[in-house]
């Protein structure tokens, strides 16, 4: 049995099949949360979120990339979000590779060097600051004043704001 089979079986077994048909796609809190794909982070648990309250955008690192800006542009312009919360975390996988070492690895294995940035970082606080700047400086986003960044300590569960 694959993991996908397992997920489908769990989906079939659900007693609550999902949201009502007339529920709105507009996040009730008008906020978008950008965070890492790390399995230790449960965004609903972290913020006490319910379904329908926030957009949750996840990628490796919780880094604001061009694709994150794409989603935020749609989130703000078409779905009425006004605030952005960025959460990166301690013990992140992107802290264990370097830009060149990972690109070298890919090039050695495949003969191709990616054009995209790995977004590896040495200091998670610096990485959060870079992502904050990318949101604040984006010409595509109408709402760039209410953006805040945090580091989550995955061991203590504590959030620390990055100024
Ligand atoms: Zn991570």
Automatic annotation (TrEMBL):
<protein>
    <recommendedName>
        <fullName>carbonic anhydrase</fullName>
        <ecNumber>4.2.1.1</ecNumber>
    </recommendedName>
</protein>
<comment type="similarity">
    <text>Belongs to the beta-class carbonic anhydrase family.</text>
</comment>
<dbReference type="Pfam" id="PF00484">
    <property type="entry name" value="Pro_CA"/>
</dbReference>
<dbReference type="GO" id="GO:0008270">
    <property type="term" value="F:zinc ion binding"/>
</dbReference>
<dbReference type="InterPro" id="IPR036874">
    <property type="entry name" value="Carbonic_anhydrase_sf"/>
</dbReference>
<keyword id="KW-0862">Zinc</keyword>
<feature type="region of interest" description="Disordered">
    <location>
        <begin position="1"/>
        <end position="25"/>
    </location>
</feature>
<feature type="binding site">
    <location>
        <position position="36"/>
    </location>
    <ligand>
        <name>Zn(2+)</name>
    </ligand>
</feature>
<feature type="binding site">
    <location>
        <position position="89"/>
    </location>
    <ligand>
        <name>Zn(2+)</name>
    </ligand>
</feature>
<dbReference type="GO" id="GO:0004089">
    <property type="term" value="F:carbonate dehydratase activity"/>
</dbReference>
<comment type="function">
    <text>Catalyzes the reversible hydration of carbon dioxide to form bicarbonate.</text>
</comment>
<dbReference type="InterPro" id="IPR001765">
    <property type="entry name" value="Carbonic_anhydrase"/>
</dbReference>
<keyword id="KW-0479">Metal-binding</keyword>
<feature type="binding site">
    <location>
        <position position="92"/>
    </location>
    <ligand>
        <name>Zn(2+)</name>
    </ligand>
</feature>
<feature type="binding site">
    <location>
        <position position="38"/>
    </location>
    <ligand>
        <name>Zn(2+)</name>
    </ligand>
</feature>
């Amino acid at each position: 049995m694959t993991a996908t089979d397992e997920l489908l079986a769990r989906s079939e077994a659900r007693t609550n099949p999902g949201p009502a048909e007339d529920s709105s796609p507009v996040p009730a809190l008008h906020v978008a949360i950008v965070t890492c794909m790390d399995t230790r982070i449960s965004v609903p648990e972290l913020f006490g979120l319910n379904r329908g309250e926030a957009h949750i955008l996840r990628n490796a690192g919780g880094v604001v990339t061009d694709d994150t800006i794409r989603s935020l542009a749609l989130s703000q312009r078409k779905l009425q979000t006004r605030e952005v919360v960025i959460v990166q975390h301690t013990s992140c996988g992107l802290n264990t590779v370097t830009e060149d070492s990972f690109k070298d690895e890919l090039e050695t294995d495949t003969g191709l060097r990616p054009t995209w940035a790995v977004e590896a970082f040495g200091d998670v606080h610096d990485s959060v600051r870079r992502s904050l700047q990318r949101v604040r400086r984006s010409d595509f986003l109408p709402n760039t004043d209410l953006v805040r960044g945090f580091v989550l300590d995955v061991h203590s569960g504590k959030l620390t704001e990055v100024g």
